[in-house]
Amino acid sequence: MKPSMLYAKVTPDSLGIPNDVFFTSSSSEYQKYREAWAASLFARGFSDLIKPCEVRLVVNDSFPDFEIKVENSIHPFEFTEAQVPEYKHKRGDYYKKKKTDPLLGPLAIYANVEEAATWICDKLKKKFEKKYRPKPNLLIYANFQVAKKLDLDQVRKVCEPYRPEFKSVWLLWAVTIAQVFPGEDFYQACSAWSEIPGYRKECEKRMGIGAG
Fold first, then answer.
1. Whether residue 182 has a cis bond before it, omega within 30° of 0
2. Which of 41, 82, 147, 199 has the smallest set of CB atoms within 10 Å of its CB?
3. Comparing C-alpha atoms, which of 68, 35, 75 is closest to residue 54?
């Protein structure tokens, strides 16, 4: 379906899930929702910034996670999510506190440039070790905050050894997408951070910024 149609079905609001739960819960249920959300948002950005496409979730098979159709070609994608590592915080402790204090704000742990790249690389390496055949494209959702802008050059530097197992590698972070490594299907596109059209305003509206 069109990316905007799928996206409308899998936002926190449409699913009736609070934002803090949707984006931070370690439950496998919410992880699958985030996968659908990330796939649809990425496809939406791809469609607006690169070339019109359609997106399809692959729910009955273990590989791939989703596909995008560009013109008459279908491209398989694996998905993974890079979060703040457990050793950086106790996620379970946070949810215990949240139950007793509903007003407790979301976790706010800011990565520096080097560790942010390492967290992303760790997830890419796990996908690399699975040796998928045929080679998929890979989308990584960087679901954490960074003290400074996430450095693509640093990400490329640490991830380079794992590049051969993927047709292309992409990042979704905040309101942007970027191509980490191009491939034979997708050449040089969005090599710098590219803001997904309209998404920043949607986020601001959801958070009540500029309202009133």
1. no
2. 147
3. 68
